[in-house]
Amino acid sequence: MRKNIWSSFIVLFFLISCQPSSEELFEAGIVALDKQDFETAIGHLNRLVENDTSHAPAWNARGVIFFQTGKWDDAIDSFSRSIDLDESNYKPFFNRGNVYMEKEEYKMALVDYNRANGLDINQVDIYYNRGLALLGLEMYEDALIDFDKALHANPEQPQVLFNKAKAHLGNNDPLTAIATLEELTRIDKRNGAAFYLLGVTEMSALGKKEKGCEYLQTALSLGYTQAKDWIDEFCAE
């Protein structure tokens, strides 16, 4: 009888000792996430939070997986759990803001980006993404401030310049928008969207048909097919 009890104890001890730790499961989940093996990653992280519900980074990582797979509400739930456990980390606020942006809930996104920025003012991506939220809310002057902060860190960012131009247009400043787009096309000569917006702005805001058509033809040659409608209507000989 003693032998059986002792043997059972040994087996139980062996099974317990072979269970991966929370950090081992977290590391395995992150490795799988980096490889975009989302099914394996969520398996490791679900196992982790079942045993350790207070692991804030795991909840944040789960949210990233749900974000990557388009499960917005599940992503928000996971990021919110991470925030509830640790309000000192900017990442889940930033990540949840990104989900709200996908849902076009710009006010909610702005709140989260403000919280993220308050926790780490050195994260350039926060300024750009907050600028996009402000652009969505038609708060153009504030958006321009954030886009400029993002560009201060790296002046040659095509997407930031493109959205900065859109903010200038929203702010009824086509001349500065054109200057920004021209700067963008010097940096990225194959940016069809920038040439398209240049063409449309030259024609509709300044009445410069010839120059506008040149930009639209360039946009079309770069594969930006939306330019064709404008070319057919306004640029045909």
Automatic annotation (TrEMBL):
Alphabetized UniProt keyword annotations: Repeat, TPR repeat
Keyword Repeat: yes
Signal sequence region: none
UniProt entry tagged with the keyword Repeat: yes
InterPro entries attached to this UniProt entry: TPR-like_helical_dom_sf (IPR011990), TPR_rpt (IPR019734), Ycf3 (IPR050498)
Domain of life assignment: Bacteria
Pfam family, one: TPR_11
TPR repeats: from-to residues: 56-89, 90-123, 124-157
Record's protein name: Tetratricopeptide TPR_1 repeat-containing protein
Organism per entry: Cyclobacterium marinum (strain ATCC 25205 / DSM 745 / LMG 13164 / NCIMB 1802)
